[in-house]
Write a structure and sequence with these properties.
This protein is of the alpha/beta class. The strands form 6 sheets. A 9-stranded mixed sheet has the order 1-2-3-4-5-7-9-10-11, with no helix packed on it. Strands 15-22-21-17-18 form a 5-stranded mixed sheet, with no helix packed on it. The protein has a 4-stranded mixed sheet with strand order 24-25-23-26, with no helix packed on it. The chain has 7 helices and 26 strands.
Length: 508
């Protein structure tokens, strides 16, 4: 019995130890079909930085994001992506690929992003990128590309971003973009190449949304007058591809690699250029002004009948029949664009793309729509009421001026019965001393005596003891101030009828 207990204990201890090892990861099984040393996590497969010279043979079918960057891959065998039907992102950057070959991507129809940057690619053939009909972004910068086939991108109908910078391209076909359509393309990076010849009319005929994402800086461009005026106009319009890298746009002044001058910093090279050379290069965009809530109809005006018409909104949305995703913009059967209720987000440049056998494949027509809020109409009632009130106030003021007495002391008097007292200018002391008695009133006030208030001139009259023939004798005090004749005492003759009474008080 003891032996059985001992064996059971040993078995339990062994099981616990095995479970502990499993929990620590030492004995955990590897994911299904995950290559050696690679990392598999859900639908992600990373084999980056392992020094691989060839692609692993076995790849998990659930991988949607495959990273093979920073290895030593030199070749890709045809059909190697056949098991990866869910693949959306493929990173092959920082390898040693010098060529692709036909059929390399034939089984990658669902791929959205392909990164082939920082390799040793020298050319792209006609069928190197076959099978990538849903590709959105293609990165080919920092290679050694010197040649592109005329139809190298013909199968990339959904491509919106193409990066070809830091290569050795000496020419690029802007007329047909090497088979690439302009319907979805928004970014075309050709910076830091060897572009020395650019057909200016083909460059000017590109749609406005592509001009905004066309990067041509750090190229040995020719100091051509038409090209200078075209790029200067793009800079004035604020196109980001030009304005963001204005200091890196250069041209060759003497057709020598060392004679590069900066386009926008040293414009003396173009002093003799006539602006008339740039006229007619670009069709000016139509300026439209519309108020919020109004309707708008845009027609795609082309030089010849078009078979297919599409529009691009200011939000870079491709508009085809029946219209936009939110339903605010409709595309009619005749190709025209209709907005029944204009809103602020409809402001911007609408571009029409027309194609047909008689048209250039990228013939466009642009409308610059400006949306304004309607001005509020003035309130007629408030304006009339304000005018009436102003007239009434003015009439009251006129009546007050005509009929109300001008002084407070005459409110009880009207017309001739009101005699307001006027305050004369203060006479000088010499004039007052020489005043005649006729200026004084002969009738003394019968009011009782009152103390003189402050700032009052007081004249005391006392009966004269001798006859002065009606004249008034002035009694001047000893401390009398000539410039302040206060307390002036007047003496009247006894013969004056008005001065024979008791003292009177006259305030002046």
């Amino acid at each position: 019995m003891a032996r059985l207990v001992l064996q059971g204990t040993l078995l339990c201890m062994l099981r616990v130890g095995l479970s502990t090892l499993d929990s620590e990861g030492f004995l955990s099984p590897a994911p299904h079909n995950c290559p050696y040393k690679c990392v598999c996590a859900a639908d992600l497969l990373s084999c980056a930085g392992l020094g691989l010279q060839d692609v692993p043979v076995t790849l998990p079918a659930a991988a949607a994001d495959l990273d093979l960057s920073h290895n030593a891959l030199q070749r890709l065998r045809p059909g190697w992506l056949a098991p990866l039907s869910r693949l959306r992102t493929l990173r092959l950057n920082h390898n040693e690929l010098d060529a692709l070959g036909r059929g390399v991507f034939t089984n990658a129809s669902g791929l959205r992003l392909l990164d082939l940057s920082s390799n040793a690619l020298r050319a792209l053939g006609r069928h190197d990128l076959d099978g990538l009909g849903e590709l959105k972004m293609l990165l080919l910068f920092n290679n050694r590309l010197a040649h592109l086939d005329e139809q190298a991108f013909h199968g990339l109908g959904a491509l919106s971003r193409l990066y070809l910078g830091c290569n050795e391209l000496a020419s690029f076909s802007f007329s047909h973009l090497h088979g690439l359509g302009t319907t979805h393309l928004r970014t075309l990076d050709l910076s830091s190449n060897h572009l020395g010849r650019i057909p200016v009319p083909d460059l000017a005929s590109l749609p406005a949304f592509l001009k905004n994402g066309l990067y041509l800086h750090n190229n040995p461009l020719p100091c051509d007058c038409r090209l200078y005026h075209l790029l200067r106009r793009w800079h004035q319009r604020g196109l980001s591809a030009v304005s963001d890298f204005a200091g890196e746009y250069t041209c060759l002044a003497f057709k020598v690699p060392t004679s590069r001058v900066r386009f926008f910093e040293h414009s003396r090279v173009f002093e003799n250029c006539s602006a008339a050379l740039a006229r007619g290069l670009e069709q000016p965009e139509e300026q439209l002004h519309v108020q919020v809530g109004q309707s708008l109809r845009l027609h795609c005006n082309t030089s010849a009948p078009a078979v297919h018409i599409a529009w691009v909104s200011p939000q870079h949305e491709l508009l085809m029949a029946p219209g936009s995703r939110n339903g605010s913009i409709a595309v009619r059967a005749d190709g025209s664009l209709a907005i029944s209720n204009v809103q602020p987000w409809h402001e911007g440049v609408f571009v029409c793309l027309a194609t047909g056998p008689l048209l250039h494949h990228n013939q466009t027509h642009e409308y610059n729509v400006s949306v304004h809020f309607p001005r509020p109409e003035p309130d007629t009632f408030n304006t009339g009421f304000t005018t009436l009130l102003g007239c009434a106030v003015g009439l009251v003021l006129v009546l007050l001026y005509l009929f109300v007495p001008p002084c407070p002391g005459c409110r009880r008097c009207y017309h001739c019965t009101c005699r307001c007292r006027r305050w004369p200018r203060t006479p000088s002391p010499l004039q007052e001393l020489s005043a005649q008695s006729s200026v004084l009133s002969t009738t003394l006030p019968s009011a009782p005596r009152r103390k003189a208030s402050v700032h009052k001139h007081v004249v005391f009259l006392e009966p004269g003891r001798r006859s002065l023939n009606g004249r008034v004798q002035l009694a001047v005090a000893e401390n009398f101030d000539l410039y302040n004749p206060m307390g002036l005492r007047l003496k009247a003759g006894s013969e004056s009828a008005s001065s024979t009474g008791s003292e009177g008080l006259v305030m002046t």
